């Protein structure tokens, strides 16, 4: 009977000589169709074999004494499996193409929005150029700026091609463009020393770009003024142009020429100031860290204000950053406030107070034959300077070297530039995602605490963020299925796809990962890889029976070379080490992982914990940062929403505790992740709200 069924399955005529004895027992051979039919082979496989199968059938049935050749059966099964693999590969390629089309569609829509912002920013920069070239007066320039700001959508339709138009033609069209509705939103000008991607991989740089884009997405106008470093990455600057006229600024008792460059970065108008007389200030390899940093950045700060006044700009807010541009505060109120900027206010952002900490400041003795013959070091705070140097940018040292102004709280013989920024600003935003206001002022201010206490009421805390337009599981084009807090089914699909792509077991993926949790360890850009710690994590993964993925986020880095070495050394079917940078895979890792192992919650340049929460993965630190909890005792009202969430959930959770909850209390774990996903920790969320609240408060002063 079995022989008859077997022959029928292969299309072989029944033969009395082809039979199995009752004593012979064989494991059943299951040949699955694409539709999971176990009764026969895939029809496509039979077509492929063609005449070859017929020949084999004849050889089996033509000889009365022939015996079944099981190698032929195994061969057919192997070929069928190969055909199915090819079919699955084709399906994956199709899905990849569809994802790419979807991604390009999203980028095109986003690009339309960026084009609108870029045209507005480009028009404003052209207006600046007209003022500098005396084509229009500062007063008319202010009216034209309000026109552009108030009619962003209409402006794009009329002025979407500006690059090839001369000043006269463009000015005529602007004058014909009617001005009607009241201006909405704030006009913010950042005076800063960093901006991404011009200056990459620095916390202030990513912050300036991130919050500026978030503000522009919601109707505000943002401009950035920064030095033109020789090391700038200008690849993503649209319409970069050098103005034909130089702008003058005051420094060291004289007026000095500056070359002005303008362009648009991510829809944000950017002005770059290049000193001519002091060209060495910004032609160096590093952004800062030089003994003449005060001279460099006080020159730039004064030049920025001279440029703003010359162009007739009247922004609502001048936004300053750290000690490098904090000198703008005293300069503004002592010199520039009555030069058409009566309605402008000052906001200072402090990205921590580490510049207050004492360090060795080097002083070089210049030799005629050598650039530096020798150097000596003195312990000073990075943001303190000799009082008489304030005169370089036009300030009065005697007037400012007072305890309630710029005099340093510890070394009375020096002035503190960051302190001056705090005193002369209308509002101070302290950037800290984890530490509350109380901790930043009383524990981490490095001697600035007396000043911060006096100005307590104008201090506020704001968290860092990330780019939600790129990192959002509900619209991420790299994912096989999108998901959100209301519908988490797509996360299960993403986990299965991730496991398939990396060759990991899919066991229990459809049951909330209750048996085999998937943990990813993603190393941020610039991170140093601790090989000993990583091996300890791998040993832990083996003991806990969890799947682990290690991945870097930087192309061609030294870290990737270290990962390559570990990959050759470690062989485990539950551990994958991804060496080659893959953007699509990185998105899938966030979406498919249950836990993302992070280096720290405290690094402002590390967006990995924020992205993990967005994608429904728990951020857990390598070593549980239990000290975080003490910072929140009795001060929750001063902390950010992000810090409150981390403190109440993942801040004190070890990897063991997280895995235990996934396995033993999956419903609680799921609810925990859903609640985290509903929070918006991007630049458009809590960070944006804190900034708009600060801008609104100082405009009402």
From TrEMBL:
The UniProt record lists the keyword Kinase: no
Tagged with keyword Glycosyltransferase: yes
First-tier enzyme category under EC: transferase
SUPFAM superfamilies reported in the protein's UniProt record: UDP-Glycosyltransferase/glycogen phosphorylase (SSF53756)
Entry GO MF terms: alpha-1,4-glucan glucosyltransferase (ADP-glucose donor) activity
Keywords, ordered alphabetically: Glycosyltransferase, Starch biosynthesis, Transferase
Catalysed transformations (reactions): [(1->4)-alpha-D-glucosyl](n) + ADP-alpha-D-glucose = [(1->4)-alpha-D-glucosyl](n+1) + ADP + H(+)
Pathway terms, separated by semicolons: Glycan biosynthesis; starch biosynthesis
InterPro entries per record: Starch_synth_cat_dom (IPR013534)
Domain Starch synthase catalytic: 187-453
Classification via Pfam families: Glyco_transf_5
Highest rank taxon of the organism: Eukaryota
EC assignment: 2.4.1.21
GO terms for biological process, alphabetical: starch biosynthetic process
Name the UniProt record assigns to this protein: starch synthase
Originating species: Arachis hypogaea
């Amino acid at each position: 009977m079995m022989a008859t069924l077997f022959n029928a399955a292969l299309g072989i005529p029944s033969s009395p000589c082809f039979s199995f004895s009752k004593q012979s027992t064989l494991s059943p051979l299951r040949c699955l169709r694409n539709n999971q039919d176990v009764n026969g082979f895939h029809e496509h496989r039979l077509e492929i074999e063609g005449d070859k199968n017929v020949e084999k059938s004849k050889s089996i049935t033509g000889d009365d004494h022939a015996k079944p050749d099981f190698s032929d059966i195994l061969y057919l099964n192997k070929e069928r499996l190969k055909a199915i693999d090819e079919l699955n590969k084709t399906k994956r390629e199709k899905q990849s193409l569809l994802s790419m089309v979807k991604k390009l569609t999203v980028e095109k829509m986003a690009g339309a929005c960026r084009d609108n912002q870029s045209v507005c920013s480009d028009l404003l920069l052209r207006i600046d150029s007209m003022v500098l070239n005396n084509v229009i007066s500062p007063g008319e320039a202010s009216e034209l700026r309000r026109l552009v700001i108030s009619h962003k959508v209409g402006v794009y339709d009329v002025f979407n091609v500006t690059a090839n138009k001369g000043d006269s033609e463009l000015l005529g069209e602007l004058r014909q463009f009617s001005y009607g509705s009241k201006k909405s939103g704030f006009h913010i000008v950042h005076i800063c020393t960093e901006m991404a991607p011009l200056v990459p991989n620095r916390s202030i740089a990513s912050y300036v770009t991130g919050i500026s884009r978030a503000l522009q997405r919601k109707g505000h106008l943002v401009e950035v003024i920064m030095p033109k470093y020789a090391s700038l990455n200008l690849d993503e600057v649209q319409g970069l142009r050098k103005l034909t006229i130089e702008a003058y600024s005051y420094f060291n008792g004289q007026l000095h020429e500056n070359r002005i460059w303008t362009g648009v970065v991510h829809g944000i108008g950017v002005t770059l100031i290049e000193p001519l007389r002091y060209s060495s200030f910004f032609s160096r390899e590093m952004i800062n860290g030089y003994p003449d940093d005060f001279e460099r950045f006080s020159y730039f700060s004064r030049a920025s204000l001279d440029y703003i006044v010359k162009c007739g700009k009247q922004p609502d807010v001048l936004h300053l950053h750290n000690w490098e541009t904090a000198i703008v505060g005293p300069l503004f109120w002592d010199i520039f406030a009555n030069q058409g900027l009566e309605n402008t206010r000052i906001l200072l952002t402090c990205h921590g107070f580490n510049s207050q900490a004492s360090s060795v400041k080097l002083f070089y003795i210049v030799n005629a034959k050598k650039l530096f013959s020798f150097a000596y070091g003195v312990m000073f705070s990075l943001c303190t300077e000799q009082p008489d140097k304030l005169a370089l940018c036009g300030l009065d040292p005697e007037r400012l070297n007072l305890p309630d102004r710029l005099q340093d709280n510890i070394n009375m013989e020096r002035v503190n530039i960051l302190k001056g920024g705090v005193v002369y600003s209308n509002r101070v935003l302290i950037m800290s995602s984890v530490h509350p206001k109380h901790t930043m002022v009383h524990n981490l201010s490095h001697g600035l605490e007396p000043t911060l206490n006096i100005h307590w009421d104008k201090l506020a805390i704001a968290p860092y963020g990330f780019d939600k337009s790129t990192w959002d599981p509900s619209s991420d084009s790299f994912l096989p299925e999108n998901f959100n807090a209301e519908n988490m089914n797509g996360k299960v699909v993403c986990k299965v796809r991730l496991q398939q792509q990396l060759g990991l077991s899919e066991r229990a993926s459809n049951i909330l990962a209750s048996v085999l949790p998937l943990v990813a360890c993603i190393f941020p850009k610039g991170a140093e890889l601790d090989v000993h710690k990583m091996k300890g994590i791998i040993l832990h993964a083996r003991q806990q029976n969890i799947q682990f993925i290690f991945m870097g986020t930087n192309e061609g880095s030294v870290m990737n070379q270290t990962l390559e070495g570990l990959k050759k050394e470690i062989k485990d079917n539950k551990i994958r080490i991804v060496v080659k940078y893959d953007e699509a895979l990185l998105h899938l890792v966030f979406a498919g992982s249950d836990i993302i192992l992070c280096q720290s919650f405290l690094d402002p340049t590390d967006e990995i914990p924020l992205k993990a929460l967005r994608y429904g993965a728990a951020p857990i630190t390598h070593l549980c940062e239990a000290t975080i909890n003490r910072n929140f005792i009795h001060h929750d009202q001063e902390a950010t929403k992000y810090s409150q969430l981390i403190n109440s959930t993942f801040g004190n959770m070890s990897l063991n505790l997280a895995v235990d909850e996934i396995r033993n209390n999956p419903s609680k774990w799921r609810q925990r992740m859903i609640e985290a996903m509903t929070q918006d920790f991007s630049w458009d969320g809590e960070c944006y709200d804190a900034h708009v609240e600060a801008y609104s408060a100082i405009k009402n002063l």
